[in-house]
Amino acid sequence: MKFKLPGSFFHRMILFASILAIIPVVVVGIFSFIRSTSVVENYVAKEKEHSVYQIQTNVEQVIKSVDQSLTQLASSSKIIESLREPLTTRQFQLYNQLRDDLSHQQTFDTRLTDVALISLENDWLVNNYGLQRLSEPQLQEISDRYLSLRTSSVWLLEENSKEPLYKKVASRACGYNLNLIKKIPIISSNTTGMIIANIPTCSFRDILQKDDSLEKFYILDENESVVLHNDLQKIGQAFEYSDVITENTTLENDSGQFTITSNNTDYLFTYRKSFYNGWIYVSIVELNELAAQSRSIGWLTLAITLLIAGISLLLALFGSKLIYQPIKQLQNVILHSLTNKEESKDRNEFVFIENHVKDMLKQNDFLEKSLQNQISQLKQFFMHRLLTGKVNEEELEGRMQYYGYNLDFKWLSVLTVQIDSLEGTSYKSKEEDVLLFVINGLVEELIPSDERMSPTVNKQTQVTLLLSNIESKIEFNQYVNDIAERIQKRVREEYSIPISIGVSEPFKDVLETRTAYKECLEALKYTLKYGTESIIFFENLEIGKGLHTYFPKRVENELFDSIKVNDKEKVYSLLNELIDEIFSEDLNHVQYQISLVRFLSDLIELMHTLAINVLDLEDNRSIFEKIYELKSREDVKEWFINVIIDPLLQKIEDRAESQYKSISENIVHIIHEEFESNITLDMIANRLHYNPNYLSSIFRKEMNISFSEYLSMYRINMAKKWLAETDISVKDISDKLNFNNSQNFIRSFKKIEGTTPGKYRESVRAN
């Protein structure tokens, strides 16, 4: 039966040809209109996105600066220790220091108007208005408002007259403040105090002010309440477009732009979410005003498009017959290749041809991808089975042949790559797995496929099984060493990453791959002895050596003595000497680790002796495990210095400074109270239970003047006061100040003041 096309197909061809002719014209017309509209809309959209981003950047620059500054202040030891003090009248110096620290935070850039420091232990508050003792209701209000917060640092929008942060009513110009609340200590759940910084919301008006009167700008908190707005009346209110947004979409993405409708008016809604505090920065502008200029262009484009479309339609009618002939010939070719030719009846020829071409392409792509993916995945799986010893002898040869591996080899060896450290590189520790896969690809490029099996990544290492036809074992080891050096060099040049490579003993049975891999892992443990970027052959290691250790106790004793006196330069020198002496002995990695664990235990014992702890209890349990993760001598030195030595020296220094200051203050107090008596340094030393020479050195160090000079100056100052304010005779003053005679007093007075007591009294009264 002769195949006949449906009678209406020709008309469909005419329609199709007409569409082909008209579509470009229509597309150009539509594109012109869309483009003109799009240019305006895109410009506005981009401008609004930039506007939102700029305002977000400006606002966050202020609040992040405040946050960072207050974090440093809240973390300082002076602030933490001051919270434990009652701030009595005798502690006015501490109070002045606290006021200075709080005042320094209030700069023009931070826009802060007040910073309050609250001690929950001693019930006081210090801010711009001075020191305030907190009552029980005030403490309860602080607890209700702030201590229940989930985080130790948070921004809150609050009315600016809220107690207990202010002693007097704040200005009514700003109804709300942005308050940064930081609990102290920041990293502890036991809150002993807090710092609260206040920024008036109206201080952001210069940032939010826009020339475009059609645009509204909002900054919302996580609850979609208005935090900042040009109109101060809307601050603290619910976002007026919340219902409209909920009906259309949600603000789940970090940023976005879409259209909303409110009160029969379309708006362009642009927003960005802050990664810093979850605030939402929103710009809303009417669309009708923005798109008015594009309408006139649309009418002109429509007229031109209709004219050209009519001409194109006439040309399409004439060319339909010419187009139809090639289509018919192509259809006949496909029909001759089909077994069931009846299946194409009453079908559109274009759909028929398209479906058969797509089917052929899909089948071809599927077969190619399936074959490639399957072989690659099976090779990886086979290598993992070899490393875990799950391949048996019966299947080994068949698998090797199927995957195209060379069966004519003389020697095998496993080569395992380990990343020594990512410190000092541009990479982070979480990227180590990715880097291992990158190294895996690099190894695949460097080593020809007939000299290896498929490289793989296993247990934080990159593993390659090498195959070679080299007869000599010595030459094969040299060949393996050359490959390892090439890999090291390539990784160093391209990625600047230090790697060490463990090499197993040469073997001849593929089934011994698991044992060889274990040898590589054991060899890599010796980087502690040989350092980073080492190539370590397992057969060169002295595994059977007796287990004895070496520890330089003399150097350790000198080191601990230097720590006690806080001689930093000598401490660092002796630490380097101690570590170098430990590694100077020819031992294995286990013996080195035993010596390092002993040193760590002695350090912890020293801390207990000094009653100083720089480690948490949890660290004491896990800190010994860290010893076994260190890979080189430099890692060991750096770890001991950063984790234990430096914090311990700082604690010792802080303790000494505090003790010296307290002793000096006691001596000054005694002088001020008992200057009329015959006080001496020996008498004070006996009272304070210290050696006189020790007190003398401490006093000179803290006061920059000797004890006797300070006592003489204070007595002369008191004499000047009596001479100016009283009629006491010079002799009586000399006796009250415990001078041997009035002549000694006159000489001392003249030496310090440059004149005699009598002339001084006359000059003062004359003035």
CATH fold assignment of the largest domain: Beta-Lactamase
* CATH hierarchy: architecture of the largest domain: 2-Layer Sandwich
> Based on helices, strands and strand pairing, what is the structural class?
alpha+beta
**Number of structural domains:** 4
Mean pLDDT: 80
Tell me the name of the CATH class of the largest domain: Alpha Beta
Q: Please count the helical segments.
A: 25
**What percent of residues are in strands?**
5-15%
Rg over CA atoms: 43 Å
End-to-end C-alpha gap: 139 Å
How many strands appear in the DSSP assignment? 16
Point out poorly predicted stretches. 1-8
Q: How would the global form be characterised?
A: flat
Percent of residues in helices: 55-70%
CATH-wise, what's the superfamily of the largest domain?
PAS domain
Give the strand order, joined by hyphens, for the main sheet. Answer: 3-2-1-6-5-4
What summary fits the major beta sheet? 6 strands, antiparallel
Task: Provide keyphrases for this structure.
flat; 767 residues; 25 helices; six-stranded antiparallel sheet; alpha+beta; 4 domains; disordered N terminus; Alpha-Beta Plaits; five-stranded antiparallel sheet; Beta-Lactamase
